[in-house]
Specification:
heterotrimer; A alpha/beta (about 475); B alpha+beta (about 140); C alpha/beta (about 325); A: about 475 residues; alpha/beta; eight-stranded parallel beta barrel; 18 helices; about 15% strand; elongated; C: about 325 residues; five-stranded parallel beta sheet; 7 strands; globular
Chain lengths: ~475, ~140, ~325
């Protein structure tokens, strides 16, 4: 049924969302509109455009019945507009719905406010069987209200004095149970051996076996000793995640007093806490690392939840400096094309529309700084050529098991990774086809470095070849020439 | 000890041929290179002395290597590194950095610890090289 | 002193590709085709009228380098060839153009890595005060590395009359680089033949480092007329019959004038004629409409207004003479 106008539109009672004006197929989005792209699976019998209108309505001004108080407002402006619905390729019941929101629906500089609308009530809405937020286009004017990454890739590199190669890290293992003194030992060995960073795991906070202050103190001893042993700037991501905002700030301040270059938070602390910590980090010259703990609960299934690229966008706006964004070759979820989409979103000043990488919109990043993606989970030195090829230079490669599990010890594991990396960069810059010659390059480098040889022998056949669940919907096809 | 700043410090020292290949890579990206030296490689010694300003109009690696070798003639027993600078928008920062010369013996660094309140420690990483006056280091 | 990596240019580095086996036979024609030098030689023929002896020398040099390369592939004894050259001849005889093509040929045969030409004179190399010259010369050398450094009127570097002239400093640096960086840089010294001769006499170091001397003869009147034809066509103009006659008369007159600079003087004469043509068309505006042909054609009168025709044999007053530079 067509949209109703004037008094008919506001007669008390229940109308279809389309009739209420949430479906506007002729609407041309403004430069200043926020646009969201949802994957909708409507309930049987609900037409796609009505489902799209319903999502637009429930994520903006609508309620289940007509209210006369709408007429006290410029309702036409505040109503979100579904303006396009496309069938998802290779599915029976899924649709991509494009919905435009006026920028003034959102409070400046607040991810919490943005998300309360876009992924608020609407995800539990009965008219849709499943709903997934696939992508968003942020207007430049809106982006300009956000701080963006506290440090950014360029400044981080200048502070660390490390250029022209990926950075190396490792997560201290085992995740749980180490005493603080033993924990600091791992930090010292790994950094002395050649890594740039070590990392607390997401669930290391302040448990009975290790109080957070003890951890920070011993870690700092490890970091400083490693700096003296190598002449390099080193860091360990001190996880300040805690139960209250006050407690997180207290921990961050202690890390600051100790002279740490970096702190860490978990995604589960929430958007407002993340933004708060990003502003704190900017004020305290601190790099802010984000572990994406929890994201897979809503990002992994294709038909419901939200795509990780949206998290990438929000986190760049919220202001983190590092975020785990996939490895392609490791143990965690990651289709190569999708991961390129995430990495581009985090690192590029401008991302063009690219359906094959899951980027539905052109996005100008309005000079927000660049976020350093972190590749972590089941990667090892023998994959160095693939990692460099897929992930590029501006990335942190985290070899947790691949460092600490080395048969000759942690420092040897770290050295193996660093040598493999430097040999690969050297070869790439010399113009070698390092993807094809990768194993040879590593074998040759191992001749001067027995720890690398041992690493290659230990993990030579380890790969994780599972099907990705989050795969592209669009595959590039050749346009037939006429 | 061995200072491992710069990109290739974990590999055997680069030969001139290898250095040239790295320089040519940077030139091919459109980056400008310079040569810097120091007798104090403290990790936070940001500003090494410039042997020359970045060479913006150089096409060939031999030109940069020429400066490296001139610098070695004068400061052969100090740390010398090659840096490249990328002036493209959104970077406008350094793009490569690697050491091409080191002193015969690298004295390294010590850690001084001052006990503070509670268990906290104030750390100071100290360059042993700076124990001697400038000019008398690495003799 | 620990200087890792300085003593090694000859020793293979760890990442080098394995040595290739020695071929049993080589096809010189194939090598020649692959380098595509012929296209450079053809280009020279198109660009430069006459200069048969120079073109012959270039072919000889190209052949020598090609054979040298083949010998190296067969692992025969080869000295790295010295490629520094001197180009002598009067202004406007094509020295710079040939130098450009020479850089191209050397690049195609992989004797220089980048193949660009940096053209300088004394002012670019020599400074005004103490400590100024060395960095200036080094700066130029660094720009030219991987290509060809063309030093026009090289003899101005040497000023025997002035003991404290900084040119000597520049000469010393150049000599050092010409010796030590033969793989990185080819130097071409250019200028008048007689002055170059004096220069080499007082700087034997240069003479011994220069392997190829190319002499650029003056053009004949007929060659200059051909050159004029090429220039006019290149700029999308045409000479009317009367213009051709006028130009044929003009050339020998101009050749007798002082400051005659071969092709360069011809270029200047054509530029003047273009100016007069524009004036003529402008003066006639409103009377008739212009055709494309009108816009292209240079008439006899456009040349005959030159003062060379007014004052036969007069010296120094000719309106068309170019200075020796530009």
């Amino acid at each position: 049924m067509a949209e109703l106008k004037g008094a008919d539109r506001y007669k008390a009672g229940v109308l279809e969302y389309k009739q209420m004006g949430y479906w506007q197929p002729d609407y041309v989005p403004k430069e200043t509109d926020v646009i969201a792209l949802f994957r909708i699976t409507p309930q049987p019998g609900v037409p796609a455009d009505e489902a799209a209108a319903a999502v637009a309505g429930e994520s903006s001004t609508a309620t289940w019945t007509v209210v006369w108080t709408d007429r006290l407002t410029a309702a036409d402006t505040y109503r979100a507009k579904a303006y396009r619905v496309d069938k998802v390729p290779n599915t029976d019941d899924q649709y991509f719905a494009y919905i435009a929101y006026d920028m003034d629906l959102f409070e400046p500089d607040s991810i919490a406010n943005l998300t309360a609308s876009i992924i608020g009530n609407v995800f539990g809405f009965k008219a849709v069987k499943a709903l997934r937020l696939e992508d968003m286009r942020m207007p430049v004017a809106y982006l300009k209200t956000f701080q963006g990454p506290a440090t950014g890739i360029n400044v981080e590199r200048e502070r660390l004095d490390k250029f022209g190669r990926p950075l190396l890290g490792a997560t201290v293992k085992p995740k749980l149970g180490l005493s603080s003194k033993n924990y600091g030992r791992v930090v010292y060995e790994a950094l002395k051996g050649g890594l740039d960073f070590t990392k607390d795991d997401e669930n290391i906070n302040s448990q009975p076996f290790m109080h957070w202050r003890d951890r920070f103190l011993y870690c700092m001893e490890g970091v400083t000793k490693a700096e003296a042993a190598t002449g390099e700037v080193k860091g360990t991501y001190m996880n300040v995640t805690a139960g209250t905002m006050d407690e997180m700030i207290r921990r961050a301040e202690f890390a600051y007093e100790l002279g740490s270059v970096i702190i860490m938070i978990d995604l589960v602390i929430g958007y407002t806490a993340i933004q708060t910590m990003a502003k704190w980090a900017r004020q305290h010259d601190m790099i802010l690392h984000l572990h994406r703990a929890g994201n897979s609960t809503y990002s992994r299934q294709k038909n419901h939840g939200m795509n990780f690229r949206v998290i990438c966008k929000w986190m760049r706006m919220a202001g983190v400096d590092h975020i785990h964004a996939g490895t392609v070759v490791g143990k965690l979820e990651g289709d190569p094309l999708m991961i390129k989409g995430f990495y581009d979103t985090l690192r590029d000043p401008h991302t063009p529309e690219s359906l094959e990488h899951g980027l539905f919109f052109e996005q100008d990043w309005a000079s927000l700084r660049k976020v350093m993606p972190v590749a972590s989970g089941g990667i090892h030195a023998g994959q160095m050529h693939q990692l460099l090829h897929y992930l590029g230079e501006d990335v942190i490669l985290q070899f947790g098991g691949g460092t600490i599990g080395h048969p000759d010890g942690i420092a040897a594991g770290a050295t193996a990774n660093r040598v493999a990396l430097e040999a690969m960069i050297l070869a790439r810059n010399e113009g070698k086809d390092y993807m094809a010659e990768g194993p040879d390059i590593l074998a040759k480098a191992a001749k001067d470095c027995s720890p690398l040889q041992k690493a290659l022998d230990t993990w030579k056949d380890i790969t994780f070849n599972y099907e990705s669940t989050d795969t592209p919907d669009f595959v590039p096809v050749e346009t037939p020439s006429i | 000890m061995r200072v491992t700043q710069g990109t290739f410090s974990f590999l055997p020292d680069l030969t001139d041929k290898q250095i040239k290949a790295q320089i040519q890579y940077a030139l091919d990206q459109g980056w400008a290179l310079n040569v810097e030296y120091t007798d104090d490689p403290h990790p936070r010694n940001t500003y090494w002395e410039m042997w020359c300003v970045p060479m913006f109009d150089t096409k060939d690696a031999a030109a940069v290597l020429l400066e490296v070798n001139e610098c070695r003639k004068v400061y052969g027993n100090m740390y010398i590194k090659v840096n490249s600078f990328d002036n493209s928008r959104w970077r406008e920062s350094q793009s490569m950095s690697f050491i091409v010369n080191r002193p015969k013996e690298e004295p390294g660094f010590g850690v001084a610890r001052d006990a503070g309140p509670g268990r906290s420690l104030r750390y100071r990483v100290h360059s042993y090289a700076t124990d001697k006056p400038e000019g008398a280091r690495y003799k | 002193m620990a200087k890792p990596g300085t003593a090694d240019e000859t020793e293979a580095n760890g990442t080098d590709a394995p040595e290739q086996p020695i071929p049993t036979e080589l096809d010189l024609e194939e090598e020649f085709q692959r380098s595509d030098i012929q296209s450079v030689l053809d280009q020279l023929d198109r660009e430069l009228v006459g200069l048969a002896s120079v073109k012959m020398r270039i072919r000889e040099i190209a052949a020598m380098l090609l054979v040298d390369k083949a010998r190296r592939q067969m692992r025969l004894e080869t000295e790295p060839p010295t490629l520094h050259m001197s180009f002598t001849g009067n202004p406007g005889t094509g020295k710079t153009t040939v130098a450009l093509r020479m850089a191209d040929i050397l690049h195609r045969l992989e004797y220089v890595r980048q193949g660009h030409l940096v053209s300088v004179t004394r002012d670019d190399l020599v400074g005004q005060y103490i400590g100024h010259t060395a960095p200036k010369t080094r700066e130029v050398i660094k720009k030219a590395m991987g290509g060809v450094l063309f030093i026009d009127e090289a003899y101005y570097l040497y000023r025997p009359e002035n003991e404290r002239d900084y040119g000597q400093e520049s000469i010393e640096i150049l000599l050092q680089v010409m010796e030590n960086n033969r793989d990185d840089l080819v130097v071409i010294l250019a200028g008048y033949a007689n002055r170059m001769e004096t220069f080499f006499k007082s700087n034997p170091g240069f003479r011994s480092r220069v392997a190829h001397h190319l002499d650029f003869p003056d053009y004949s009147a007929e060659e200059l007329f051909k050159i004029a034809g090429l220039m006019v066509a290149q700029q999308q103009y045409i000479l009317s019959d009367s213009a051709a006659v006028a130009l044929r008369e003009y050339i020998p007159k101009r050749m007798r004038q002082p400051h005659f600079a071969n092709a360069r003087s011809i270029r200047n004469a054509i530029d003047r004629a273009k100016l007069r043509q524009a004036n003529r068309l402008f003066a006639g505006r409103g009377k008739t409409k212009l055709t494309k042909n009108d816009l292209m054609t240079l008439e006899g009168a456009d040349f005959r207004q030159s003062r060379i025709f007014d004052e036969p044999g007069a010296s120094g007053a000719a309106g068309d003479h170019g200075s020796t530079k530009q």
